[in-house]
Write a structure and sequence with these properties.
- It comes from Pandoraea apista.
- This protein is of the alpha/beta class and 288 residues long.
- Helix content is 45%, strand content 22%.
- It contains 10 helices and 10 strands.
- The strands form 2 sheets. An 8-stranded mixed beta sheet has the order 4-3-5-10-6-9-7-8, with helices on both faces.
- Strand 1 and strand 2 form a beta hairpin.
- Helix 1 crosses helix 3.
- The longest helix has 28 residues.
- The radius of gyration is 30 Å and the shape is elongated.
């Protein structure tokens, strides 16, 4: 049988000693001043000696209190770290994945059920951001097709997941106006239209230009007849299949492909499995 005082008394003592104040300890522990004072008296009775001296309006540890605080503080710190480790190990294994909101909504989330069937113990936490902000999410893995703004060292170690094919799409009623109509562009990733213009002869959207911060909004603008959007084929295949969008000039494979960029220094079986699953699903569902 352990001859120790109740843990609640030691917890009150540790908080009071740290703050050198009964009032502050009571606030931290969500207890009344009188309840904390009463538990301190019980502990001092158990020890057989006072643990604090008065110091103005506060308290100061005496020699016995300093000895006990050195012991209790160390034990509580070990207990806190150990408990946090147990909780972490008890939680489902997870991966923090950052990708564009459009890719998450239109492809990744609709396909995650298949991943969970294969790997039921792994949970994916998503950060959905604009392409410009995606670099700073602190994720285990970033998924993006445009890495032009990334450091060369990141571009070199990025893993190619699948080819990408982009094409100008518009509402069926807008088809006749597409060549001279409005071009819909993404605020932060202009390389798609620049690549199309450099490698595809027909001029498209030679009129005005409107921009949006997310590809999803570009697609919605095209659906509503505002103009022509240049979009990756997988992201609009559903709308093309049901006739709400048309792609008069088809889709052209771009050289960069969809990339996976793991965080520097990270390596795990779950990360490898997720990247392998992404590759398999993207290739299997390639509309081309």
């Amino acid at each position: 049988m352990r001859t120790l005082p109740p843990l609640s008394l030691l917890r009150v003592f540790e908080a009071t000693a740290r703050h050198q104040s009964v009032t502050k300890a009571a606030e931290e522990l969500f207890r009344t001043h009188s309840a904390v004072s009463r538990q301190l008296r019980l502990l001092q009775e158990d020890v057989g000696a006072p643990l604090f001296d008065k110091a103005g309006t506060g308290l100061k540890l005496n020699r016995h209190g300093q000895q006990l605080y050195a012991l209790v503080g160390s034990v509580f710190e070990q207990l806190e770290h150990g408990y946090a480790k147990v909780r972490q190990q008890a939680q489902p294994v997870g991966l923090h994945v950052a990708c564009s909101a459009t890719f998450a909504m239109r492809w990744l989330v609709p396909n995650l059920a298949d991943f969970y069937r294969q790997y039921p113990d792994v949970r994916i936490r998503l950060s959905m951001t604009s392409a410009r902000e995606i670099r700073n999410e602190g994720a285990d893995l970033v998924i993006a097709w445009d890495l032009a703004s990334y450091p060369e060292s990141d571009r070199l170690r990025a893993i190619t997941l699948a080819p990408v094919a982009f094409g100008p799409v518009c509402a069926p009623a807008y088809r006749r106006s597409a060549a001279t109509g409005t071009r819909i562009a993404h605020d932060h990733t202009t390389s798609a239209w620049a690549h199309w213009d450099a490698h595809h002869k027909p001029g498209i959207g030679r009129g005005a230009e409107i921009t949006f911060p997310h590809t999803h909004l570009c697609i919605e603008a095209a659906l509503s007849g505002l103009g022509v959007a240049l979009v990756e084929r997988r992201l609009v295949q559903r709308e093309i299949d049901d006739g709400r969008l048309v792609a008069p000039w088809g889709f052209v494979e771009f050289p960069f492909g969809l990339k996976a960029l793991p965080a520097s220094g990270i390596s795990s079986e779950n990360l490898d499995n997720f990247i392998g699953w992404l590759r398999g699903q993207l290739v299997a569902q390639n509309p081309g």
